[in-house]
């Protein structure tokens, strides 16, 4: 049974749902996604874990503040730390996709004592050079302006056709329509502010902090997503307890393109970390 809830975290109303019992598993969606991204996996994970999926600021049913500072990754990290304190959660498993993975990694670096294990799907630690960060900020500001000037439909038409998501064109028409519906449901101001506040260019670069991750860390990438496969391979060299899993014939959104495999792989990882058993695929 899924329980949908609202909670005030440092002045922002966050929306989240909870399902199941056991060790907490926190789920963080990608840009233009929502907590509902994770609903298909409830049947996989909620028999063993307390599954908690949260809408990040500017997305889903969580508020879209006016202040860009409230979208900054460090600010949202403190909101989620408050969330764990309010729910009396001492330690949790974290799973994040893309933007949600950058967020989960940021939380893990800033509050490592709260993390039992970390799973990053198609994520990065940010950009290495100041020049790369500057260029990305410029790019994200243009996208934010596109949303404000031309509207959410124009932006989604553009976004769903960028090279990163080309492999999703192979999905069924029904699944593509579901993804599009979720993107179109967003608050335009929230998406624009998220790009300005939590974009890859403005977040801290964590490359020099990866060796501080002293808990099990798993990187999941899709074989067809060459950019993030390369990033993942670079990351894993720096993470003491790291492992990378590359999924055959999948692109950036592995959880969408290979849903069953993703659900089983994550459960295998979590049960192994819990001292349970491994399910053979």
From TrEMBL:
GO terms assigned for molecular function: 2-succinyl-6-hydroxy-2,4-cyclohexadiene-1-carboxylate synthase activity
Domain named AB hydrolase-1: residues: 24-258
Catalytic activity: 5-enolpyruvoyl-6-hydroxy-2-succinyl-cyclohex-3-ene-1-carboxylate = (1R,6R)-6-hydroxy-2-succinyl-cyclohexa-2,4-diene-1-carboxylate + pyruvate
Biological pathway: Quinol/quinone metabolism; menaquinone biosynthesis; Quinol/quinone metabolism; 1,4-dihydroxy-2-naphthoate biosynthesis; 1,4-dihydroxy-2-naphthoate from chorismate: step 3/7
Record flagged with keyword Lyase: yes
Broadest EC class assigned to this enzyme: lyase
Gene3D superfamilies in UniProt: alpha/beta hydrolase (3.40.50.1820)
Keywords of this entry: Lyase, Menaquinone biosynthesis
Enzyme Commission (EC) number: 4.2.99.20
Family affiliation: Belongs to the AB hydrolase superfamily. MenH family.
Function as written in the Swiss-Prot or TrEMBL entry: Catalyzes a proton abstraction reaction that results in 2,5-elimination of pyruvate from 2-succinyl-5-enolpyruvyl-6-hydroxy-3-cyclohexene-1-carboxylate (SEPHCHC) and the formation of 2-succinyl-6-hydroxy-2,4-cyclohexadiene-1-carboxylate (SHCHC).
HAMAP family, alphabetized: MenH
Complex formation: Monomer.
Protein name from the UniProt record: Putative 2-succinyl-6-hydroxy-2,4-cyclohexadiene-1-carboxylate synthase
Native source organism of the sequence: Pallidibacillus pasinlerensis
Gene name of this polypeptide: menH
């Amino acid at each position: 049974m899924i329980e949908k809830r609202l909670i005030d975290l440092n002045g922002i109303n966050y929306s989240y749902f909870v399902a199941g019992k056991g060790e907490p598993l926190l789920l963080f969606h990608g840009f233009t996604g929502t907590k509902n991204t994770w609903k298909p996996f409830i049947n996989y994970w909620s028999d063993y874990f307390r599954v908690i999926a949260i809408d990040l600021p500017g997305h889903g049913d969580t508020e879209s503040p006016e202040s860009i500072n409230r979208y900054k990754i460090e600010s949202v990290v403190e909101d989620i730390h408050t969330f764990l304190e309010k729910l009396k959660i001492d330690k949790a498993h974290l799973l994040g996709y893309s933007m949600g993975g950058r967020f989960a990694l940021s939380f893990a670096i800033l509050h490592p004592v709260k993390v039992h294990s970390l799973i990053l799907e198609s994520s990065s630690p940010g950009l290495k050079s100041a020049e790369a960060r500057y260029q990305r900020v410029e790019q994200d500001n243009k996208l934010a302006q596109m949303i404000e000037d031309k509207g959410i439909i124009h932006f989604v038409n553009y976004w769903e056709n960028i090279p990163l998501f080309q492999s999703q064109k192979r999905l069924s028409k029904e699944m593509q329509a579901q993804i599009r519906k979720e993107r179109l449901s967003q608050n335009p101001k929230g998406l624009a502010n998220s790009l300005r506040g939590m974009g890859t260019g403005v977040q801290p670069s964590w490359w020099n902090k990866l060796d501080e991750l002293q808990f099990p860390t798993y990187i999941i990438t899709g074989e067809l997503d060459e950019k993030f496969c390369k990033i993942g391979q670079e990351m894993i060299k720096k993470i003491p307890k790291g492992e990378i899993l590359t999924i055959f014939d999948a692109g950036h959104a592995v959880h969408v393109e290979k849903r069953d495999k993703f659900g089983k792989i994550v459960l295998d990882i979590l049960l192994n970390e819990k001292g349970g058993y491994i399910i053979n695929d």
